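Task: sequence design from structure.
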């Protein structure tokens, strides 16, 4: 009769990840020392290589360490105990405390000089940097689709600026087919190496409402241009932006 073998196969339970907790599991060692294993004891390094006991008298092959700090790496090791005492420590497992990003706050849209500026705030990344956004734009039938040509959420600049700009004309054409006065709404998710955030609520603020094209064919009117006056004449631009030109 002797102490049991150390537990083996200590590893994270990936499906149980949260931003501030780590779940892990293990298996019994090959031999129990001739008498049943009574319980287990878990130690961790507090993310600073200073080990302390996390829990003792544990009657399960799993444990969840809680109230941790996301973005830090933690080391864990486990001992088994029978009537004769504790085993050697298991192999150490190092686990990053991290999870998928939080939900993105409600995004906005603004129309400026026939461009639409879509803007949002980076959510809490929960321990791993955000690697991409998936951005969905409203269509006239109230479904949403992506526009990766003009607003690619994997682009490093868009990730850094949490903003993209798309020509207003994109949204008056198929598949969006929005009409004058309709809302320019978007919703999006954020992704890191640990997963995808919940979908944001849809948001906007901008509407299909464009400015007219610049006047063209500006020229002098010789019959008016005399002494101290100059006569000018011009033509409207190709489009009026969907609304009658008011003045110049």
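Answer:
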């Amino acid at each position: 009769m002797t102490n049991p073998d150390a537990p083996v196969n200590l590893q994270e339970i990936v499906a149980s990840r949260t931003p501030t907790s780590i779940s892990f599991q293990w298996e019994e060692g090959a031999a129990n020392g001739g008498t049943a294993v009574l319980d287990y004891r878990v130690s961790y390094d507090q993310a600073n290589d200073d080990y302390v006991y996390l829990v003792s008298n544990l009657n399960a092959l799993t444990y969840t360490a809680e109230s941790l700090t996301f973005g830090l790496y933690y080391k864990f090791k486990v001992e088994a105990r029978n009537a004769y005492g504790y085993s050697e420590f298991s192999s150490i497992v190092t686990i990053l405390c991290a999870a998928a990003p939080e939900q993105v706050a409600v995004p906005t849209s603004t129309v400026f000089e026939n461009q639409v500026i879509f803007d949002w705030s980076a959510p809490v990344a929960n321990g791993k940097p955000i690697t991409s956004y998936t951005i969905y734009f409203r269509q006239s039938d109230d479904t949403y689709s992506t526009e990766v040509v003009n607003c690619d959420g994997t682009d490093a600049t868009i990730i850094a600026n949490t903003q993209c700009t798309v020509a207003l004309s994109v949204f008056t054409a198929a598949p969006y087919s929005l009409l004058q006065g309709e809302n320019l709404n978007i919703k999006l998710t954020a992704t890191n190496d640990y997963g995808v955030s919940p979908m944001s609520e849809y948001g906007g603020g901008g509407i299909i409402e464009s400015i007219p094209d610049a006047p063209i064919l500006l020229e002098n009117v010789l019959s008016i241009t005399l002494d101290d006056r100059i006569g000018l004449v011009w033509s409207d631009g190709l489009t009026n932006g969907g609304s009658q030109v008011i003045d110049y």
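The chain has three domains: 8-96, 108-205, 211-248.
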